[in-house]
Input
Amino acid sequence: RRTFRWIWRLTYLSVLGTLGYTAYVIYDDRNPGEQFIPDPSKKTLVILGTGWGSVALLKNLDTENYNVVVVSPRNYFLFTPLLPSCTTGLIEHRSIMEPVRSILRHKKGAANYYEAEATSVDTDRKVITVVDNSDIKGATSTTEIPYDMLVVGVGAENATFGIPGVREHSCFLKEIGDAQRIRKKIMDCVETAALRGQSEEEMSRLMHMVVVGGGPTGVEFAGELQDFFEEDIKKLVPGISPRFKVTLIEALPNVLPSFSKQLIDYTENTLREEKIDIMTKTMVKKVTDDTVEAEISKPDGTKERVVIPYGLLVWATGNAVRPIVKDMMARIPAQKDSRRGLAVNEYLVVQGARDVWAIGDCAVAGYAPTAQVASQEGSFLARLFNNMAKTESLEGRIHDLSSKMNLKAGNSADEAHQIELLEKQLRRVKDVKPFRYSHQGSLAYIGSEKAVADVSWWNGNLATGGSMTYLFWRSAYLSMCFSTRNRVLVILDWLKSKAFGRDISRE
Ligand code: FAD
Ligand code: NAI
Output
């Protein structure tokens, strides 16, 4: 009984502690302290983008050392790993968005934010041109912003490989607007299929959901969609349920090519158990408003052309270079051989450009285009820039002390010792090691409350899949959410969907 009483007391105290801490974080979040305006003579650091790379940089940067200017057409950070859950309403989209203004307001030194798209960078004049693409237009919609230091973190756009019809007829899954479009279209297909007098053939087409690309985005979306159907649509619209089908099309011999063989097999078996149709070695060649035309490579080496009718088509075939990055690659001679983004050196400096760095999906540093890489690169640049500012301040102090000593007749031992200490500190600060990516592992949700994980474990690798991995997946992503607010909203969304089901009303 005594042990039980102790366990009870400890549980009580830890719940109380957690609630107290959450209340403190919420209060702190709502009441940020005074911000100081950085000295205008300091260097202007312009950061393009508000994605994983740029926000990690902002989070770790001592903004009081620079005049920081952030430019992005998106005035929020998006937690992409939970984006597939927004397509079915499991998570509401605002739960995974964090306004950039709120991020900046919590920095010690004030920073400027402009909601605009950078269209070109003149690395000789050190200015960027930005355009306000929002619906509301002011007297000025194009302007130039000068910089002393520039960080390009604009991410990537969707790859279509020039396949006809993709841009016009399919939905992508990269931004909040894409997830909203998909959520609306799923219900549109369901309601249209359920309309009285609909032909059998048309019902089957409308209920056929096709996903192109068997990378993590395609697999996670297919899993979420099948869950949506099993847990909600089937119960609420039973009439059309026998026709609901998800097909995942992949050009390579298997899905999730970046995961280990064991997890690829586990994923494919789980997806088949969930009744998701997997078509591998199938390359989509053309898309129309209601069909996908694909070429299947057969085991005997021959090819077969198939036409697949669809109601919803989601295109998830990876990344392509954004126009602004293409423009920079064309202007900087040292970038002429780059194809997939801005080539950077081991300090993430854009090769061939002065005072320009690139991070995340738009940079080619030899790593995969993932949030993990982008965020580590952003944190690295913050350390580098903090050190550069410290170096400048230490050099200034050494210079001042040395001048003072030169003016005096006799040097004091104290001042000489002070210089020695400062020089030691300066050597330490200047010694910044090049960027090295530390891979923490890969995680992917595969539907029916199962996930796969390839994680670093001691000195080796641990490949695991199933329901326990799903709990790990949930807790890992919950802990990685940007803010306490995001974390609380995501938990509430999960609970709400579990208790009441997903909201299937079409906005
Ligand atoms: P982004 O996060 O894409 O941000 C780019 C920013 O630049 C945006 O704010 C954009 O508005 C802005 N921008 C664009 N053009 C301009 C311009 N011209 N001027 C100024 N600003 C501009 N990775 C993982 O590691 N784990 C995961 O679980 C995972 N899940 C994912 C799920 C989905 C659905 C998707 C699509 C991706 C996922 N990723 C995941 C990949 C990850 O999201 C990207 O690698 C990551 O977002 C790259 O970060 P970034 O900062 O380079 O670009
Ligand atoms: P991807 O590049 O990983 O996969 C795209 C897939 O589409 C490839 O397997 C390719 O073979 C296939 N494909 C290309 N053209 C095709 C065609 N015409 N027909 C059929 N198949 C075709 O792209 P994805 O999934 O969008 O991911 C982009 C990046 O984001 C990757 O680096 C990925 O690791 C990361 N990401 C990570 C996640 C995670 O860790 N859980 C989740 C989502 C994305």
